[in-house]
Specification:
alpha+beta
Length: about 250
């Protein structure tokens, strides 16, 4: 998949498993994220990511106690069973599936984020899109906001115990690129695994000559990457927030 662009940019590629385009690269991110989390704990910040959609099956519940009790890291036990059943069917056909991971960051104080080019949502988006299989990100209502009226999407405010409080959280906890004190909520789209066992058209390049050919891979490859990417999303979010706090 990424072999072509690496070949074009560097004149070679790591054919042993993708090199820096491989998911193995994320191990260092998770290690660094663990250190960042120790910083965040002192500020009472908690990051929780989980699979809300896989192979077209969507979670309805958000029960965090279920996340580590199923293979999909899904907060909905019923949906997790359906996801796994669908994924096994896809696996039997030699194909793969994508999904969506949601992340909630609780306990973030108002004021994190540096306009104009270091907005909190911009930094989180950059961090998430640096993860290999992530192809999109949205905050709060995200793309659904395009179909709302301003009166529906605005997060109106009111006084509560002498402090400012919000009626809703359509913005996902970030306004003007700065955290507003509410829970930060974002979702990332995970593409289907490109390494599938179905024969695919490709090219063979030898001594500068290009010819069309067919490729069928072998070995062990995941069908859906969502559960593996969940801890990577948490780690990258932790790194961004630790930077902002420091």
């Amino acid at each position: 998949h990424a072999d072509f662009t690496y070949q074009e940019k560097y004149g070679f590629r790591d054919y042993r498993g993708g090199g820096r385009s491989s998911g193995r690269e994320t191990a260092a991110r998770v290690a660094a994220g663990a250190v960042a989390n120790e910083i965040l704990k002192k500020s009472g910040i908690q990051i929780t990511a989980y699979t809300i959609k896989a192979a077209g099956i969507e979670a309805k519940e958000r029960d965090f106690s279920q996340i580590e009790k199923n293979l999909l890291r899904c907060p909905d036990a019923t949906a997790a069973e359906k996801m796994l059943e669908k994924i096994n069917k896809i696996k039997s056909k030699g194909d793969s599936a994508g999904g969506i991971i949601e992340c909630q960051i609780q306990g973030v104080p108002a004021g994190l984020g540096e306009p104009v080019f270091d907005k909190l949502d911009a930094e989180l988006a950059k961090a998430m899109l640096s993860i290999g299989a992530i192809k999109g990100i949205e905050f709060g209502e995200g793309f659904a906001a395009a179909d709302l009226l301003g009166s529906e999407n605005n997060d109106c405010m009111h006084e509560e115990n002498g402090k400012i409080a919000f009626d809703s959280n359509h913005a996902g906890g970030i306004l003007g690129g700065i955290s507003n004190g509410q829970t930060i909520i974002f979702r990332v789209a995970v593409k289907p695994v490109p390494s599938i066992f179905i024969p695919q058209n490709t090219v063979c390049v030898q001594d500068g000559n290009v010819k069309s050919t067919e490729l069928q891979i072998k070995g062990r490859h995941d069908v859906c990457l969502c559960p593996r990417i969940v801890p990577v999303v948490e780690a990258m979010a932790a790194l961004v927030l630790a930077d902002m706090i420091i």
